[in-house]
Design brief:
- This protein has 184 residues and is an all-alpha fold.
- The protein has a two-stranded antiparallel sheet with strand order 1-2.
- Helix 4 packs parallel to helix 7.
- It is globular and about 50 Å long.
- The two termini are 33 Å apart.
Length: 184
């Protein structure tokens, strides 16, 4: 009987895992191969980030694990800010200008100021910001090809810069999974 229960639990876990997995990296239409593969991976990670937070109520959106933590809402804003930074860095070869700094700097840096500022807004507020940034990323990347992806900007290639955006999302996806499991 114990083995049957273990087997059923394993099957349930695996079927749930596969149901949420894309199981394939495939460039969407309209993108060159390498850029499209990156978009496929970025979008897959974004979907998994969204699954961690989409059902959060206000208390969950503003939840702080401790006095030095960032809320799920602030982390989503941080992901959008990081992606917005890499848009201007890779497409325009610069950092944020004064207006962009005003809009994104708190989300980029997080910390005390973010804990004060990023609260009392529903999770959808943060997801809409993230969605709009991703939409712009895809529009911009659609205008480029794999040769552009290989070009260096500063000390990194454009490909590496967008890989960093992807790995950054993956790191925070894990953080969000842990935080949302700790919400009372």
């Amino acid at each position: 009987m114990k083995n049957q229960i273990k087997t059923l639990l394993l099957v349930a876990f695996l079927s749930t895992s596969f149901a949420f997995a894309q199981n394939e990296i495939k460039p969407p239409k309209g993108f060159t191969k390498d850029i499209g593969n990156m978009i496929s991976m970025l979008d897959n990670l974004k979907q998994r980030v969204e699954r961690n937070v989409r059902n959060l109520n206000q208390e969950g959106t503003d939840f702080l694990l401790d006095e030095n933590a960032n809320s799920p809402g602030a982390i989503i804003y941080h992901l959008a800010a990081t992606e917005a930074y890499y848009q201007v860095y890779t497409f325009e070869g610069r950092g944020f200008n004064a207006e962009e700094k005003k809009k994104w700097e708190t989300a980029l840096s997080l910390g005390d100021k973010a804990r004060e500022e990023f609260k009392d807004k529903p999770i959808q507020y943060y997801m809409d910001i993230y969605d709009n940034v991703r939409k712009k990323t895809k529009e911009l990347l659609k205008t480029k090809d794999d040769e552009w992806f290989k070009k260096k900007i500063g000390n990194m290639s454009n490909h590496w810069a967008w890989f960093h955006v992807m790995e950054h999302q993956a790191n925070h996806m894990g953080q969000l999974a842990m935080i949302t499991k700790r919400i009372p």
